Amino acid sequence: MRIGELSRRTGVPVATIKYYVREGLLPAGRLTSPNQAAYDDTHEHRLRLIRALLDVGGLSVSSIRDVLEAVDDRTQPVHEVLGWAAKGILGPAGVAADPAAAAARDRVAGLIERRGWQVAPESPPAEALAEALAALDRVGHGVFVDAVLEDYADAAEDVARVDLEYVGRHGSVEDMVESVVVGTVLGEAVLAALRRLAHVHASARRYGAAAVPPAADGSGAHSS
Amino acid sequence: MRIGELSRRTGVPVATIKYYVREGLLPAGRLTSPNQAAYDDTHEHRLRLIRALLDVGGLSVSSIRDVLEAVDDRTQPVHEVLGWAAKGILGPAGVAADPAAAAARDRVAGLIERRGWQVAPESPPAEALAEALAALDRVGHGVFVDAVLEDYADAAEDVARVDLEYVGRHGSVEDMVESVVVGTVLGEAVLAALRRLAHVHASARRYGAAAVPPAADGSGAHSS
């Protein structure tokens, strides 16, 4: 198909498609004449993936380029690629070197050991967790971590189990890698939105909401 | 304290502090002479909160301004403020009007009804969820949603319950509002990092990892 048809099918303007090609996110079309290129279904699919990572995942153009390079790299063994999803998307971690950061790192190492997780404490998601815990500590909400960390870890294990079951269903490594990327980035958006929905419901039950009638069981001060 | 001391304590450069004051994120110091201002602990605390929302939460300067305005607005009743956290941080939702979006909205409405959540289907987190589900559908991973949505919703309910218990512990509305903001934004970063850690562990068990010895129970093809 011509670039105009690709634009029509995906809703992405022609100028934006050309920008993605220049930035190396989207492979160039096959030249059919000196100034005309043909695109196919793989371009359409890739374009939808770029838009999803950009609009819903909130990734930057340069992060998307890194992610797609890894998707296209067939030389990596499956477990490396799966582990990579955490690396490539998180980017280089930068935990500051203050007492809050040191305490947070110890805490993450303790959590990993306690749960028997086969993860290096210096891996990018472990560093990202330490940075988030340190940030909570610095704003005086370190006690939030005490209150929620184990329950959060339980929930993360449950979610990761169903994610991996989904990934495991894909036959080819190519499909599997894409499903990891999609599941990591868009799954995070799904989980975050669900958590906020559940917050609204829980606070409506607990504190009463203007727009919604109170729960039948009363003020709900001790209800879940 | 002078601005240099505030900078030293928080690690935020003086020029950056001045920028936050100009942008309305941080209240100006109390003028002690025509070109000298005094800052106190409330400035230090606010500055740490700004950095946490920026660095770990990944919010933009304009989102942070909106969030802090709501934190400072004492006229709102508690449940409005709690519900607001989802609104203010998510920003205006923009779900496209294609068949994937319509199907996703129906799906979200069904989920809310099935779970008995007291949330309007047109509320911002519901729209954000619909947008994420539609994006998954558009990239051909709609089946991911079938596979994981109910388990994700279970996990979100568990997490929201412990979040609300934490928020409920705070006596003053001021503290409560801040804990909602911090818990929403930084809690999301904590949960996302934990999910990625749990992914690495689950894939190491399932597919074997180069850097980590295999689990004692063997290949782990059917282990959680």
Brief rundown of the structure:
Chain A has 224 residues and is mainly alpha-helical. Chain A contains nine helices and two strands.
Question: What descriptive keywords fit this protein?
Answer:
mainly alpha, 3% strand, two-stranded antiparallel ribbon, homodimer, 9 helices, Multidrug-efflux Transporter Regulator, Chain: A, Domain 2, disordered C terminus
Blueprint of the fold:
The structure is a homodimer of 224-residue chains.
Chain A (H helix, E strand, L loop, with lengths): L2 H8 L3 H9 L7 E4 L2 E3 L2 H15 L5 H12 L5 H13 L8 H17 L8 H15 L3 H27 L4 H35 L17
Antiparallel strand pairs in A: 1-2
Describe the overall structure:
The structure is a homodimer of 224-residue chains. With 224 residues, chain A is mainly alpha-helical. Chain A has a domain of 55 residues: Multidrug-efflux Transporter Regulator, Chain: A, Domain 2 (Orthogonal Bundle), CATH 1.10.1660. In chain A, 67% of the residues lie in helices and 3% in strands. A two-stranded antiparallel ribbon of chain A has the order 1-2. The longest helix of chain A is centred in the last third of the chain and has 35 residues. The N and C termini of chain A lie far apart (54 Å). At the A-B interface, helix 3, helix 5, helix 7, helix 8 and helix 9 of A face helix 3, helix 5, helix 7, helix 8 and helix 9 of B.
Q: H/E series of chain A, N to C? A: HHEEHHHHHHH
Instruction: Identify the overall geometry of chain A.
Output: elongated
Instruction: Profile the largest sheet of chain A.
Output: 2 strands, antiparallel
Radius of gyration of chain A: 22 Å
Q: Could you tell me which chain pair has the largest interface and how many residues each side has?
A: A-B, 98 and 99 residues
Main structural class of chain A:
mainly alpha
Number of helical elements of chain A: 9
CATH fold node name of the domain at 1-55 in chain A:
Multidrug-efflux Transporter Regulator, Chain: A, Domain 2
Secondary structure: number of strands of chain A: 2
Keywords (chains A, B): DNA-binding
Protein name (chains A, B): MerR family transcriptional regulator
Pfam family, one (chains A, B): MerR_1
Domain HTH merR-type (chains A, B): 1-70
